[in-house]
Amino acid sequence: MSLHESTALCWAPSSQVPQGLQGESGRWAAIEQLESGVRSYSRMFPAIMARAKGACITTEDGRQLIDFLAGAGTLNYGHNPDVIKRALLSYLEEDGIVHSLDMATPAKRGFIELFDTLILRPRNLKYKLQFPGPTGTNAVEAALKIARRVTGRHNVVAFTNAFHGVTLGSVAATGNQHFRAATGLPSLGVTFFPYDGYFGNDIDTGDYIERMLKDRSSGVDPPAAVILETVQGEGGINVARSTWLRRIEGLCRNVGALLIIDDIQMGCGRTGPFFSFEESGISPDLVLLSKSLSAYGLPLSLVLIKPEFDIWKPGEHNGTFRGNNLALVAASAALSAFWRTEAFQRDITKKGEYMYSRVAALASTAVARTASARGRGMVVGLDCGDSTKAMDISRLAFGQGLIIERCGSEDQVLKLIPPLTISEVELGQGLAILEAVALPILQA
Fold this sequence. Notes:
This protein is of the alpha/beta class. It has 2 domains: 3-80 and 343-443, Aspartate Aminotransferase, domain 1, CATH 3.90.1150.10; 82-338, Aspartate Aminotransferase, domain 2 (3-Layer(aba) Sandwich), CATH 3.40.640.10.
């Protein structure tokens, strides 16, 4: 989710709802009249989404849409993938346990064993697995608690343009005022520093961060943790360099802080490898996963904890839905289907390079170099340099059959995150729609 959650920034008020959905007798009436004003995506994409398969969505009135949103990064394997659907249906037909709090089940055991075998061991990673609750923000909250418990410190370092969630602990580490202001409370316990590239590529913000953390008169309390995204999704597809990530890791070791990598949106293959931090060579103390971890849009989140930091006492951090067995079954099916070899990762890299080349070429057509492309793997951003241009492109693209959302500090960036399983034909079709609607706007 990004700034366009604000009603003022949405481009689909009631007067613009498609014909047939307006009025009390229309199919849109219940949404318009009864659902809270907090809704956002239904305002941006005013249609009733009825069915979906792979990278395509069919609306209730029969429109076909190519999905470059993928559940805000939740559907890396696409909509209703057959291999996962079969596993879910089989589990339900056998009356497998669906809800179990954190009791042991075959579904949980199977996922833990498979995750260790296919993901952790091949990467020489040793982590304990905590299932904190159903969504990403639950994982963030748990990680912040762990870091503060382990170190006995209260301060956490976060970064400009960061997004970590909207519950009180996670929103305190989220940079954008749109989300922070909604709490009605001052944010506590977090110090913000400039992310890599915040002042341009020629300035290494690590110099400033190091000085502030090491100077006992800087006014910055020693941190319990540093939390960061290796690629900031909602912040505008800001990609941290590997050298910068390694420097931040070194600072954490030097000042006794835990390093938390929020891989909720960028993990599970979005940048190519299963974890977004792999190519940098860093070793996070805590890793956060959610969104596409469940592989089917079912709620599931995970905190990976280095064994020496697993100091929880039983029940200290709990939740009614921390045992989503359907999600665990789906996650296991995805691991088995996509992560037994490196073929899937190679395919992501190939498609990602194709996406980036097309978007970069499109950006180069903008007048006065006002647009730019950035990204890694199959997450690519088109910075339009202007929120109105980005909004117009998103709106027109939707009219032509493409769902694409905006992100960035002013919603000036179009975020391309299609399912990783999208076919080359569908990917090309979606990019063609984007090019057709964006070209005249960028050249205006």
